[in-house]
Amino acid sequence: MIDKPEHSASDLTSVRHFLLDLLCQLAYKEGDFVLSSGQKSSYYINGKLVTLHPQGALAIGRLLFSMLPTNTEAVAGLTLGADPIVTAVSVVSALENRPIPALIIRKEAKGHGTMAYIEGPTLSEGAKVVVLEDVVTTGQSAMKAVNRLKAAGYQVESVLALVDRQQGGAELYASEGLQFQPLFTIADLQAYVKRE
């Protein structure tokens, strides 16, 4: 059902529904959890169970690719959560004859060789890069990627994410002058889980 590369609106609507179902089945769990931000939560979203799933990665690649501004020159994200996402979007972009390279931002500089923070092709000064993220809570992870990219001379104006937990990330991005668009909010996931 989702292996066709065309991007008609109705086709992307069915891909979006498929992805929401997959996120709720595989990634969303209720219980007592401590998040990477240190906050306690009554639910947890393990995005990697979907971003590393073959059909999940394809759906994510197609949906996020369709949301990219037309002037996007690369997609990037902070390792590890964003790695499969930037790869999926880059692969889909090649299938769509609009190849967009992927960049992976290290949390610490490489300890040998080039000592780089950013892995992937070197882009021209001022290249427009969109930051991708799996689950946004406070927004700090994607901001690390944004700041590294800006320090390297690239322009970053937007962040796209799979799920917004609606716990301050959107407000942080707005305060930094970034556009933010999640595929889903936590309200979307919880409403779907309740219906099912």
Low-confidence stretches: 1-6
Please provide the count of β strands. Answer: 8
Mean pLDDT: 92
Proper CATH architecture: 3-Layer(aba) Sandwich
Q: How would the global form be characterised?
A: globular
Write the layout of secondary structure elements.
Blueprint: H1 9-27, E1 28-34, E2 40-45, H2 48-51, H3 54-67, E3 74-78, H4 83-95, E4 102-105, E5 118-119, E6 128-136, H5 140-151, E7 155-164, H6 169-175, E8 179-185, H7 186-195
Parallel strand pairs: 3-4, 3-6, 6-7, 7-8
Antiparallel strand pairs: 1-2, 4-5
Helix pairs in contact: 1-3, 1-7, 3-4
In short, what is this structure?
Its EC number is 2.4.2.10. It is an enzyme of class 2 (transferase). The chain has 7 helices and 8 strands.
Task: Describe this structure as you would to a colleague.
With 196 residues, the protein is α/β, with parallel strands linked by helices. The chain has a single domain (9-195), classed as Rossmann fold (3-Layer(aba) Sandwich), CATH 3.40.50. Helix content is 40%, strand content 26%. It is built from 7 helices and 8 strands, in the order H-E-E-H-H-E-H-E-E-E-H-E-H-E-H. It has helices at residues 9-27, 48-51, 54-67, 83-95, 140-151, 169-175, 186-195; strands at 28-34, 40-45, 74-78, 102-105, 118-119, 128-136, 155-164, 179-185. Strands 5-4-3-6-7-8 form a 6-stranded mixed sheet, with helices on both faces. Strands 1-2 form a two-stranded antiparallel ribbon. Strand 7 (155-164), helix 6 and strand 8 form a beta-alpha-beta unit. Helix 1 packs across helix 7 and helix 3 crosses helix 4. The radius of gyration is 16 Å and the shape is globular. The two termini are 21 Å apart. Residues 1-6 have low confidence and may be disordered. Pathway: Pyrimidine metabolism; UMP biosynthesis via de novo pathway; UMP from orotate: step 1/2. One of its GO terms (biological process) is 'de novo' UMP biosynthetic process. Homodimer. One of its GO terms (molecular function) is magnesium ion binding. Orotate binds at residues 137, 165.
